[in-house]
Amino acid sequence: MQQKFIIDGVKPLIGEIEVQTAKNAALPIIAACILTDEPVVIEKCPHLKDIDAMLDIMRHLGASVEFDGDNLTICCHDVALNVINSDLTGKLRSSIFILGSILSRCRHAYISHPGGCEIGLRPIDLHISGLKSLDVKIADDRGVICCDGTEMRAGMVNLDFASVGATENLMMAGALLDGETVIVNAAREPEIVDLAQFINAMGGRVSGAGGSVVRVIGVKKLHGCTYKPMPDRICAGTFLAAAAATGGSITVNGIIPEHIFGITERLKQTGAKLGFHRNSIRLLAAPRPRPIHKLETNVYPAFPTDMQPQLCAVLARAKGSSVVVENLFENRFGYTSELAKMGAAITVKDRVAVIHGVPQLYGATLRASDLRGGAALVVAALSAEGRSAVYGVEHIDRGYEYIERTLTELGASVRRADCGS
Ligand code: UD1
User: Fold this and answer.
1) Domain range 23-227, its CATH number among 2.60.40.420, 3.65.10.10, 3.30.70.260, 1.10.10.10
2) pLDDT tens per residue, range 63-102
């Protein structure tokens, strides 16, 4: 049964929360479990639709997967299959992240093309050309990416663009190869550092992660380990944005503040006051947000594309006009037509949105069609006068662990209901 959120605004969010573990760190870490035949325990693994989809792929490949509370144990002792069909890849675009580790383990892989998604085309050319640099032979057979890694060897890879997924794939591909794999123009996101730490916790030799040259010295064998992935910087940013939108005052605990500097700097520009402690951030919102003259998304440490929709939801009520440029994904303003139903005044042309802030948004019936766009609708509904119904909750559940519970803890009125009710 599909579900919706019923949200009654406007209640300022007030209180203290603990942030969940990062989905975008946990996903590649789960994929990297294929690199060892010993059990791995991932602590505080979030319960999310995207994680479930990745675990379905792992089970399909022959892994045993067991959740004990929040601790996830994965054992890839008997990885027997190296074929992933479109019914599995279709559920999770980042299924392509598994290519490097399957190749490392089995030397052959056949994966259905993950295709596009709601926020843009999302090509995989960088993954493919990177693996080809390591002498993997790759052919596309009617939508199935057929990879032959029998002659695969360590080498130098120069990425034309610092892709997060391609960097992660190549780190996994190089982990068990004889010799040194050097990834030039690697992505520098904190999730890359986390994956490097995880591979090293299994006995790997990855260095330079977090910089633009990552070096992977292959080892003969990796062993099992227990690992706790990093906190979710985008979830933290989303709750801070929700507080900024509702004139609230919240503390987010369990965060690494420097990870979200690109976000907090922008929230400050909306007039919010921020206080930083070792593992927490406190935000005190302005009564009405200020506009941001120009907000551009870019690779880390700049303002992340995964926070663009949520911050635009804040700016929808700003006292003045903002210009937002989306540089990563060509189709990431889809949610703005939903915000318009609430009275927001946003015009979009190609990758640029101009937001004329309005004094008040009004509750409406809304439909989420992607994860972060869905989070933006929730942020807007929290700050809107009256009742909103947000459909398409399954998109939000891909990345937020029971978002309605966390928001309720902060005093919001959010209820999950079956769509039929
Ligand atoms: C990851 C994140 C996603 C985030 C994105 C950018 C995960 C599971 N997902 O996605 O939430 O929005 O980073 O921070 O970690 N590109 C190509 N060719 C490729 C690969 C990418 O042209 O082969 C382009 C993409 O279309 C996009 C840009 O590069 O325009 C960034 O993509 P990338 O960094 O690869 O993002 P993902 O790893 O897919």
Assistant:
1) 3.65.10.10
2) 999 999 999 999 999 887 778 888 888 888 788 889 999 9
Domain 3-20+231-418 matching CATH 3.65.10.10: the answer reads yes
Mean pLDDT of 24-39: 97
Q: What is the 3-state secondary structure (H, E, C) of the chain?
A: CCEEEEEEECCCCEEEEECCECHHHHHHHHHHHHHCCCEEEECCCCCCHHHHHHHHHHHHHCCEEEEECCEEEEECCCCCCCEECHHHHCCCHHHHHHHHHHHHHHCEEEEECCCCECCECCCCHHHHHHHHHCCCEEEEECCEEEEECCCCCCCEEECCCCCHHHHHHHHHHHCCCCCEEEEECCCCCHHHHHHHHHHHHCCCEEECECECEEEEECCCCCCCCEECCCECHHHHHHHHHHHHHHCCEEEEECCCHHHHHHHHHHHHHCCCEEEECCCEEEEECCCCCCCCCEEECCCCCCCCHHHHHHHHHHHCCCCCEEEEECCCCCCCCCCHHHHHHCCCEEEEECCEEEEECCCCCECCEEECCCHHHHHHHHHHHHCCEEEEEEECHHHHCCCCCCHHHHHHHCCCEEEEEECCC
Domains 3-20+231-418 and 23-227 share a fold: yes
Query: Which residues belong to the active site?
Result: 117
* Nearest protein CA to atom 37 of ligand 1, as residue: 165
Residue 89 has a pLDDT of 86
pTM of the model: 0.97
How do the domains of the chain map onto residue ranges? Answer: 3-20+231-418, 23-227
Q: Whose CA is nearest to atom 12 of ligand 1?
A: 306
